[in-house]
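INFO  loader      accepted 1 record
INFO  loader      residues=365
INFO  predictor   begin
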Amino acid sequence: MEREERRTPGTLLQIRLFGVPVRFHFSFLLLLIFLAFVGMESPSGAAAAAYVIGLFASVLLHEMGHAVVSRRYKIRTLEIVLFPIGGVARLERNPRPSEELWIAVAGPAVNVLIAAILIGGAAAWNRSLDFATVFDRKGGDLLSQIAAGNLALAVFNLLPAFPMDGGRILRAMLAMKRSEAQATEMAARAGRTLAVLMGLYGLISANFMLVFIAFFVYLGAVQENAAVLGRELTKGVPVRAAMITEFRTLSHGQTIRDAADLLLATSQQDFPIVHGDQVLGLLDRGTLLRAMAQQGPDAYVASVMNRDFTALAPDMDLSEALPVILQAGSCALVMQEGRVLGLLTRDNLTEFLMLRQVGLRTHSG
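INFO  predictor   done
INFO  writer      dumping tokens
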């Protein structure tokens, strides 16, 4: 049976804001622990920690801006994940170009609004924000720093390079005249170029935080371009075209030893567990090895199988199944009327995409 909600791997904690799950990547929690230690060491460290926490609160509001506008277009936000270098809002479906344009604009607009509120609040309280000391680590006005930080976030996110919001705006505008794949390739190329320049400047100036950010910008541009290419190659193709049709199953009464023998005798790494024609669960290679070590070879596969497996319909569009299988893990079952017709794994999906890409290039050549 299919999970109702999948979370990004590596996330640990969760809160909900306006019905949207907000999850924290484990690396973000490590950053918070680091800030806590810095804050205990010195008074200026506590101010720095407060500043960074204020900025991450601004990042969260930035992502909520995307979520609110997405809801206006009836696109549900599946989750918001906070990383050390920012946040990511994962949407239920890919927005159309006109929708993506306004969804992308919403994030930086929130940061500008936060800065305006801080500046306006200071004026209402008859005090001015001290922007002259905004980058002074030993002093300075905390509100000034957060206001300036929000303006910096807005400007950085509006750079016309993927995966920043500016790159999404650029892609949306290009996609009104070009295909999504062409528009994404152009925006991703701008993102890679910006990342290289940013990384080189960071190395020359010994600013290794800038190098760190450049690495993730480059990685984000490459991943998004690959994801869009995958959707382009699988659009209009049914799941049954890519599934593995020759596979072996295990009965619920068989043991871990039986599963291990089958693992060695075949190239298959994921085994549906069945009782007659009924599918009870799925046993993957990792679970099998852990069960062998912890429970021994005589344990039944039914006691360790995953009952919360992912199931796909054979006529489902492969472009829609692509993010599902990437989130599900190593394998999904292709089922119809309760029967298993095939398996869809990351490995055979990758091979299918490679062959299809080569086939399309050969055909177009």
